[in-house]
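Quick one: Extracellular globin from Macrobdella decora, structure tokens please.
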Amino acid sequence: MKSLLIAVLLGAVYAMASEVCQDLHAIKVQTQWKDAYGESSDRVALAQAVYRTLFKLAPESAAFFHRVNGEHPDSSEFVAFSLRVLNGLDIVITLLDQKEALHAQLEHLHHQHIDRHVPPKYAAAFVESLHHVLPAVIGHCYDEVAWTKCLGNIAKKILA
Ligand code: HEM
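--- reply ---
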């Protein structure tokens, strides 16, 4: 009887956790993203820092962004694009505790990327880029493990 109760409780905990990351990591990512993006006075600078870092880590990835003028990261086209991406990331992070809506949003983003043929290895480069940028914005409270788990899975699902 006792082991049945434990099994039911464990099942409930796992059911709460999203397919992307466990609840504690999700809460940390949501809180830290709110500090970095939600309360940012300069989202353009944040978005540009993310892509400048990505293009330093993986210079060849700029070629994927030709249609949005990725060769010129300061151009209005690319600035607007980079903000659309951060807005997309904001939606995903907001939904980390809404399992079904999160799944729907990740499917939507996945479909937006299929025709781009971006190799999945760039998911890691994107995560690495945020590892460089976010601590500079929010300081030492940045939780690298939580971001690696949550954002790593998010980016992998989008590019899969
Ligand atoms: C968490 C990770 C990511 C999120 C949330 C995300 C989000 C988005 C969104 C919302 C769009 C559509 C923007 C629009 O309306 O124009 C987009 C387009 C695109 N993304 Fe991502 N993305 C992610 C990762 C990546 C990575 C790692 C790459 C490649 C290195 C990539 C390459 C592209 C390309 C090539 C486009 C289309 C650009 C065009 O219009 O030609 N994405 N992404």
